[in-house]
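Bug #77: duplicate submission created two jobs. Keeping one. Sequence:
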Amino acid sequence: MAKITTLFVDIGGVLLTNGWDREDRSLASKKFGLNLEEMESRHRLTFDTFEIGKISLEEYLKRVVFYEKRSFSQEEFQKFMMEQSSPYPEMLELIQSVKKKHHLKVVAVNNEAKELNVHRIKEFKLGTIIDFFVSSCFVHLRKPDDEIYRLALDFSQASPEEVLYIEDREMFVQIAESLGIKGLHHKDFASTQDKIVHFFAPA
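Kept job's structure:
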């Protein structure tokens, strides 16, 4: 079995909470008095375009929230969006520990809009753990497109059998595994901590 040299890791749902999921949008609808059903409908129509970096956060919000006059500003709403992110400290510590112990290159492979991605990288100092970011907003591809994994392999100069991928969405793990990448379906800290050691056990 090839030695693992590189760790691919998702951000939202693994290292941090999701950046802007349905729960966050539901909270926003209550705080700002928005029609959640209309907001969700507009979100679904444009979110993919937002996540692959084809439109800015400002343009996304014009389409989803500010398509009519509001009693609050874009700045207020954006601040609320950014405040919804929080870290999973145990997972961050685990990835840092495994990276150091096994001298790994760590690559984020994630779907995230640019403004949220940049904010979260800085706010939670992800650059101290992750060597580089293959984020949908930068590469204009998003999971489940398997091309994003191929790009991550090219950028990291790692062969698939040398890579372990930690991801909370099982389908994405399966897609990566179809390319020869080893997958670990993340459900919670305890099970991931237990499973990860087996990938580094002596043959």
